[in-house]
Structures are given as C-alpha cells and as structure tokens.
Amino acid sequence: QVQLVESGGDLVQPGGSLRLSCAASGFTLDYYAIGWFRRVPGKEREALSCISRTTDTTYYADSVKGRFTISSDNDNNTVYLQMNSLKPEDTAVYYCAAVESAYCSLVLRYDYWGQGTRVTVSS
After folding, report:
1. Three-class SS state of 11
2. What is the pLDDT of residue 31?
3. Buried b (16+ CB within 10 A) or exposed e, 39-58
C-alpha cells in the first residue's frame, strides 16, 4: 500500500524556518516524482515544489523560489521541504504527493497524497 506521511509542521515566527518531512512507504522514490503542495481555507490548492530522483530534477513555484528547498533521502524513502524566511502568508496545511513519473512537474496529476501537516507563521 502506498502511503505518504507528512511531519514537521509547527507554529513559527515570521522569518523563521521549518523542515517538513514526507515519509513514503509501499514504493521506492526511484521512479516517482514527489511534490509539495499547500492549501488555505477558501483558496485553491497551490503547488510549491517537486523532485524526481530519476532525472535529478527539481522545480519551484515563484511564490517559494529562493526560500524553500526540496531534497530527498532515497535510502530512507523520505522527501524534505526546507522552508526559510517564512511569512504569515505561508500559513497553510502542507501536503506531499507522489506520481509515477521520470520527470518533475507541478502540473502532473499526482495519484497519492498524505494527510497534511499544519504550518502557522505568526508572532
């Protein structure tokens, strides 16, 4: 069974940092693209970043480019999202998702989703 479990969400002050983790089970990261998304109530889900280890490619949305970094540890089947210089508008529930793909794209139709981890940026 394919499962994705996010962790690392917390309350953090503006300008602070968090590292989110996405632990994958039931499949190997070698042949999948993994994406990070976020959702705010009343707004559309926003694609943030993705990674494909098969082609060693990453992609970032303009809203997080230069602040967020995606990485993976294939030995532990875990994908990370390092978030720096956090802003109040980054407050959201963050999700990771997976799709069998040799390349990374934010517009891929992701098949598997985690339950999300909540990030709150506030003083």
Report:
1. strand
2. 86
3. eeeeeeebbbbbbbbeeeee
> 79-105 pLDDT, tens per residue?
999 999 999 999 999 999 999 988 899
Instruction: Give the pairing type, strands 92-100 and 117-121.
Output: antiparallel
Count of all residues that appear for the chain in the document? 123
| Mode of pairing for the β-strands spanning 92-100 and 3-7 | unpaired
Task: Give the Cα separation of 16 and 116 in Å (integer).
Answer: 20
Flag whether pLDDT at 74 surpasses 90. no
Q: CB-based contacts of 65: which residues, under 8 Å, 6+ apart?
A: none
Cα–Cα distance measured from residue 61 to residue 13, given in angstroms and rounded to the nearest whole number? 22
For the segment 4-41, what is each residue's pLDDT rounded down to a tens digit?
999 999 999 999 999 999 999 998 888 899 999 999 99
